[in-house]
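Good morning,

Attaching, inline, the backbone tokens for the sequence recovery test we're adding to the shared suite. The designed sequence is right after.
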């Protein structure tokens, strides 16, 4: 494949991969954030629906309190005065109070009188057996002291009842307790609708034991022994919250179901859609830029200047989205992982971060190559010991060698003269040569040797790897050159090209000393020996001081 075609394919692949990772990372963060907000929202709204129901029970308790501490009630449970029944216990009285049942028990737990009206028509009705069964003398709902109270829900076999039970006392509030007064009403669909209107929620209530409850209620809640909350998202248009409510005995008995439109989800979907369009637009622009530059490159004699311009512009345009990718990945790792708490999420964020770092490394290599050919990389030449540089890299190189069981040998005497060059760039050259040797060495050793010859210091990197034929040696330091092997895709094909440019611009050379298939290779580079420091200027000779003239008496 020609250099231009390979360059086009590489840059296109990097561009598409970068934008794809960026899109995936960002949409994941958006979905996670909006999903959490949506869950919190339905949790709060379901609690609002339950609180509205509890508030109704509290109001019922207040109504019952006025009747329970009334002398007429106190006397009625003893003498069952017919006048009291006629004046106070008619259907209109219950309807005006907004209740369906009124029960009077004496201190022995016997039902003195019970009154009921129909929950729909308001006409006279009968007290359900399940309600009276709850107030048997053996139960826990009869008043035993002046500070007794019981309020809450009671799940009967055929209905849900809200009730308040209080001790019957005289108007002064002292005793003895003469019985228990019960106010109760059915939780009907009409009352659930009133709560929906009041709270602006679609709220409904079901008995846990009701076999006719909706399937989604049974699936979300089941028959828990402890209070439970659940969320379901049956469609893109609706989200449902389920919360169990304890009865007067403190056990889960009723399920509140609150359904809400998925406005937050729709907003998230709209946001992601807009983001997708923007991402695709950026991808199209990046691809268009690459194609235009590539066409220009092919149509203008493929000059070095245009190649460098292509490298510089395309690589520079990729740095910004790649940096954003890493920023988002690290945000996912260190911020959102605390709330998501999913090992898969952590692994995904780590993979995105590593891929972003790898792509930034590739882009940096492309930029280095373009800047070197255009002479835009500044150098800071100074005298230094090349052996010190090599030995400082020793621990890093030794650790790399251990990954493939390859020993790293340093043969660089401290007596070598200083060389003139850029220390950081020479460090980069040594790492590139060592990396090339590691790539093709599966066992044995890699030796780094320093030697002075004439006015130059040579550094040799010798490996016991697979070696190269003559054809591969001739193009080893060319741009995008890679030896055909199973490792050919491990690098960008620019490392040795950059090393050659760096060494040559510092007055040295780089070459293949020897190589043969199955034997290994020796690559070397050289740098000029640093000139000796200029001698320090001699200080002017001191002039002898003339003694002062003699003065008598001094």
């Amino acid at each position: 494949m020609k250099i231009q075609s390979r360059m086009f394919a590489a840059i296109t692949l990097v561009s598409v991969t970068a934008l794809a990772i960026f899109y995936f990372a960002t949409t994941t963060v958006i979905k996670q954030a909006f999903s959490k907000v949506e869950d919190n929202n339905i949790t709060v709204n379901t609690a609002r629906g339950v609180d509205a129901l509890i508030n109704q029970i509290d109001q019922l308790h207040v109504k019952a309190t006025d009747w329970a501490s009334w002398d007429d009630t106190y006397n009625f449970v003893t003498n069952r005065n017919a006048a009291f029944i006629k004046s106070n216990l008619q259907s209109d009285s219950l309807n005006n109070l907004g209740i369906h049942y009124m029960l009077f028990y004496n201190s022995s737990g016997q039902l003195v009188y019970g009154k009921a009206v129909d929950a729909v028509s308001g006409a006279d009705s009968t007290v359900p057996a399940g309600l009276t069964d709850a107030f048997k003398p053996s139960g826990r709902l009869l008043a035993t002291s002046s500070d007794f109270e019981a309020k809450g829900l009671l799940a009967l076999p055929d209905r849900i009842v809200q009730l308040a039970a209080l001790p019957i006392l005289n108007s002064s509030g002292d005793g003895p307790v003469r019985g228990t007064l019960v106010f109760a009403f059915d939780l009907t669909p009409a009352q659930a609708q009133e709560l929906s209107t009041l709270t602006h929620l679609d709220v409904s209530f079901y008995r846990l034991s009701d076999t006719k409850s909706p399937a989604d209620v049974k699936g979300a809640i089941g028959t828990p022994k402890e209070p439970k909350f659940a969320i379901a998202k049956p469609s893109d248009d609706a989200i449902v919250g389920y919360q169990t409510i304890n009865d007067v005995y403190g056990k889960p008995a009723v399920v509140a179901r609150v359904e809400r439109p998925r406005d937050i989800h729709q907003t998230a979907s709209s946001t992601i859609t807009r983001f997708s369009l923007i991402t695709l637009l950026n991808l199209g622009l990046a691809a268009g830029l690459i194609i235009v530059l590539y066409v220009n490159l092919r149509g203008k004699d493929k000059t070095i200047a245009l190649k460098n311009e292509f490298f510089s512009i395309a690589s520079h345009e990729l740095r910004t989205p790649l940096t954003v990718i890493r920023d988002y990945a690290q945000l996912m790792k260190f911020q959102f992982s605390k709330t998501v708490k999913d090992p898969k999420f952590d692994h995904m964020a780590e993979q995105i971060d590593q891929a972003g770092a790898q792509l930034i490394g590739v882009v940096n290599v492309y930029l280095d190559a373009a800047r070197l050919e255009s002479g835009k990389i500044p150098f800071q030449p100074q005298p230094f010991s090349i052996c010190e540089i090599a030995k400082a890299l020793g621990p890093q190189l030794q650790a790399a060698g251990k990954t493939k069981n390859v020993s790293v040998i340093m043969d660089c005497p401290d007596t070598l003269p200083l060389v003139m060059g850029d220390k950081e760039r020479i460090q980069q050259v040594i790492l590139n040569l060592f990396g090339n040797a590691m790539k093709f060495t599966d066992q044995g050793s890699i030796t780094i040797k320093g030697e002075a010859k004439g006015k130059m210091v040579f550094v040799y990197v010798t490996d016991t790897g697979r070696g190269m034929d003559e054809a591969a040696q001739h193009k080893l330091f060319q741009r995008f050159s890679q030896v055909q092997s199973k490792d050919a895709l491990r690098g960008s094909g620019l490392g040795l090209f950059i090393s050659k440019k760096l060494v040559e611009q510092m007055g040295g050379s780089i070459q293949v000393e020897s190589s043969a298939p199955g034997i290994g290779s020796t690559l070397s580079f050289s740098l000029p020996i640093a000139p000796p420091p200029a001698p320090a200027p001699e200080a002017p000779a001191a002039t002898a001081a003339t003694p002062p003239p003699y003065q008598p008496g001094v």
